[in-house]
Structures are given as C-alpha cells and as structure tokens.
C-alpha cells in the first residue's frame, strides 16, 4: 500500500522490561502493514528536533485498526515517545519500506532477533505461521531486562532459544552461538534477522557459512524515510558491482549476503 | 478572490511560485505518494552529473538544532539515465521540471546541459555551483566570482532553456558572485545552497558525517537565506531569484518574497513533512486572499526597514 501521513491517537503505552511499547490507532496502516516495514514518527512537534524517527512495526492488529512499535527509550526521540500516554496524539508516516519477503511456499524458517529488534520478528513469526510455515527463533539481549518476550512469538514458534550476554536468562552467549546447531537441526530455508548492525553482520556470516540465505532488517540514520534524501544508504553488492541502496525504500530488509559490511 | 500566483522565471512561466529544492524531493516520484505534483510550480530535481556517481560512504546525515547536516557526494544515475527516466516520468504527468546539473569542471556542466537539450517538460536548468572544482584545487565554483562567471557563460551558451545559478552563502560578498553570474548571462539565481557545518559526537569523538563537514540546511539557516536574497535583490532588482533555505511554512515563503524572491523552494521540510510543498502552495493563495494581495508582484522586495 502507499504510505500515509496522519495524526494517530495512542491507544496504549506500556513497559516491556527496559523497553516501551506504544500502540496507535491507524486503521489504514494496520490493514496494509507487512512484517519488516517501519513507521516514521515525529518527535517533539514544534521543537528544534525536526526529523522523524523510524521504528519497525512490532504488530499490526487489522481487526482493531492499530499498529504497535517497541523501542528502547535511550535517545531524545525515544524518550519523548516513551513519555506518551493513552489518548496523546502522534504524527506518523507509514507503513514504509519493503518488508520481509514471505511469498515463498510455506517451509521451515529461522528467526534471529537481538534486543527490541525481536519485536519486528514477532510480527513476522505470526505471518509465517499463519501461512502454514514452521518457525524457530533465537532471541537474545544483553540481559533479562532487555529481552523482548512476547506471547505472539511464543504461540507462533515451534521452538525458541533464549540467549543473554550475561546469562541472566536462557543460555549465556551471543544470538549467533546457537545458529549453526539450529540450522543443522531444522534446515531452514531462510534466516530472518533484526537487531543492531554488528549483530546482523555476525548473523549474515553464520548464515552464509551454512549456505542459508538471510533477510536482515537494517538500522541506518534516515532523514526522510521516504526515499528522497539519500542519507540512509547501505552499500550492497549486486551483479558484481557496489551499489548504494536506500535503507528506507530499497530496504530496510536486505539480502545478508549482498550487504558490503563496512 | 482568485489570486493569480503565476510567475515568470527568466522566461519560464510557472503556475505558482512554490517549487522544490534540489536534492530534497528526488524527481518527485517518491513524493507523489504524498502530494499532487501538479499543485507545484515546478519540481527542481536532484543534481545530476555527466556520469553516474556512487556518492560517499555513510554516515551521510546528522540532525542538528532546527536543521540537519548532509554529505551525499552527488550520488546520481548520470544525466542520460535521468533524462530517459525521471524527466520522461515528469513530462508524462505535465509537471514542469528544472534540472540541477553539477560537475568537477566547466566541461562537465556543458556535457550535462548538452545531454538535456530539447528534453520535453524541461523549463530551466539550475547550476549547482557548490561542487568542488578540480580545475581550481577543489574549491567550490560558487566561492569565486571568476569561476562562477566562467561556468555560467559556458552553460548559458550550451543551454536552450533559462539558466539559474545556485549560489553558496559561504562567501564574503554574495552580491559580487551574483553579479558575476548575471554578468555572464545567468537568467536568474537560486539562493541559497546549504552552508558548511560540522557536528561531533562527544562520546565517541567521531565526526557525525563520514566526510567530517557537510551542508547545513533547515530552519536554522533561514535568516542567512533571507539576508542573501535581500542583499542580492537590492543590488540586482530585475534578476529573478528562487529563494530557499529553511522554508517550512507559508509565512516563510512570504518572508522570502518580501526579501525579493520570485519563487520559493521547499527543501529539508519535505523530509519531516512530506506534504509540505503542496500545503505551502495552497496556503499561499489563502494568505494572499486573507491579506488583500492580488498578485505577488505587489509584495516582492517590499520589506520595510525602519530606523
């Protein structure tokens, strides 16, 4: 669907461990949103910080007409957004970007998420499961408080491996540690990933080593989110040459093997 | 009732004075999801060069107070692909196009202009003179009156449509550069390009742009733009000016017209409000009606300075 710009009321604002979840009423966005797409949200309307901030869509409730995002309130924009309450109004553009490609016939897939990046994968897991696929997931974070846990993910996945840097939940280690074993055991068609760039890079390497294609949702600074500013480019190799593709309109989901990591 | 907003820009007739700032609107395709391009005077496209350019490595942008820094490195598909793709797309929709051309030598600008000759729907060419001139130790053309005149004269001779020179505010005397451009045949001026800035992350000690410095845009630079337009209009009252730099609302557009602008381009505002151009174009008619302005000629350059 074409993205829209609108003022949307907050229908719920809640805490999720260290994270915040914001659900807004935007029926046309809920109807058209695909896993991996994002919303671009204005922070501090009328203030000196003009640029919108991009957030992966964590959930789209088509019947209820709402979309949700999950974020870590660490920066200026996320703190402002984290202070929103029910009935507050936010200025949103979306849904934007290409989501994950889920058009292949149902099969076995592996989802690997880091921190709040797992939220976008919960949306994807539900979609894959609804299409008749078998979904396995590895979810990781620095610690238990930063682990994104979600009933939708639980219900959609045949198995979930939990990993934390400090061992406060699941197994101590990195999300990439269980990947070779899970790839061997479940033989997924695709590894879907969402998380910080360094983590995505490691995921891409492990998936490539195992000969499994990966689809990764990247995070880059974006001034516009709609394809015109060319600030959010990601270096990608295509047909033997390097291209600078826009994370917003050409992504944010890219083939992990094609990304030319810095 | 029925304010006539039509303007003439160095011979090019536009339905209204609201256009887009180069590099802030693509060629309109992406933005047509949010605005009716026919509501604008023209689309000023992103700068093209003779050959495709990959642009610089990220990070390419950083937010600053009331603005942003960018350094893209003129990423573009090359003038030929632009003419066959975006220009045709705009012409098919009857949207007047102004092409922005750049390069590292006078010959580069001429090559671009020659490649655009006769293109349907092309109403003017804007010379992006903030490109580094490799024939002049990498200094921007717009920093020197002599280099500005040289490239403008060559461009004017090669072009079959009006030529506008987009100048940098980062000069000691912008009037001298403006006079050099018009003296060499420029049909009009675009004021202003971004002003050079820099931002550093205090925690990592890293510059926020991969190039260190970049162009500052947005409302933060609007007073600089208004000043430049006013200075140049006062010296060259008959030269049409496309004013730009921090336009975010209709009042900003009126401010630039009062300083002397004939047209007004919306830039960075497109990034955070993708409907900004159409909103401003429609609001301008309402503003004129509400304030009893029958034509924009009545207020152009009519700033009052008292004291």
How many domains would you count in the coordinates of chain B?
Answer: 1
Low-pLDDT regions of chain A: none
What string gives the helices and strands of chain A in order?
A: EEHEEEEHEEHEHEEHEHEEEE
Distance between the termini of chain A: 33 Å
CATH topology of chain B: TIM Barrel
- The low-confidence parts of chain B are none
What is the level-2 CATH architecture name of chain B? Alpha-Beta Barrel
Assign the structural class of chain A, choosing from mainly alpha, mainly beta, alpha/beta, alpha+beta, or little secondary structure. alpha/beta
Give the neighbour order of strands across the main sheet of chain A. 4-3-7-1-2-6-5
Form type of chain B: globular
Q: Helicity range of the residues of chain B?
A: 25-40%
Look at the structure and give the mean pLDDT of chain B. 96
Which CATH class of the largest domain in chain A applies here?
Alpha Beta
Oligomer: heterodimer
For the record, what is the CATH homologous superfamily label of chain B?
A: Aldolase class I
User: What is the fold named in CATH at topology level of the largest domain in chain A?
Assistant: Rossmann fold
Task: Kindly summarize this structure in a few lines.
The complex is a heterodimer of chains A (262) and B (307). Chain A is α/β, with parallel strands linked by helices and 262 residues long.
Which descriptors apply to this entry?
heterodimer; A: alpha/beta; Elongation Factor Tu (Ef-tu), domain 3; Rossmann fold; 3 domains; seven-stranded mixed beta sheet; 6 helices; B: 307 residues; alpha/beta; TIM Barrel; eight-stranded parallel beta sheet; 16 strands; 30% helix; 20% strand
List the helices and strands and how they pair.
The complex is a heterodimer of chains A (262) and B (307).
Chain A: E1 4-16, E2 19-25, H1 27-32, E3 38-41, E4 53-56, E5 59-61, E6 66-71, H2 76-82, E7 89-96, E8 108-114, H3 118-130, E9 134-141, H4 151-156, E10 159-164, E11 171-172, H5 179-186, E12 190-194, H6 197-209, E13 214-217, E14 233-238, E15 241-246, E16 253-255
Parallel strand pairs in A: 8-9, 8-12, 9-10, 10-11, 12-13
Antiparallel strand pairs in A: 1-2, 1-7, 2-6, 3-4, 3-7, 5-6, 13-16, 14-15
Chain B: E1 7-9, E2 12-14, E3 18-20, E4 43-44, E5 61-64, E6 67-70, H1 79-92, E7 97-101, H2 106-116, E8 122-128, E9 132-133, E10 139-140, H3 145-158, E11 163-167, H4 174-183, E12 188-191, E13 195-198, E14 213-217, H5 222-235, E15 241-244, H6 250-259, E16 263-266, H7 269-272, H8 276-290
Parallel strand pairs in B: 3-16, 4-7, 7-8, 8-11, 11-12, 12-15, 15-16
Antiparallel strand pairs in B: 1-2, 5-6, 6-14, 9-10, 13-14
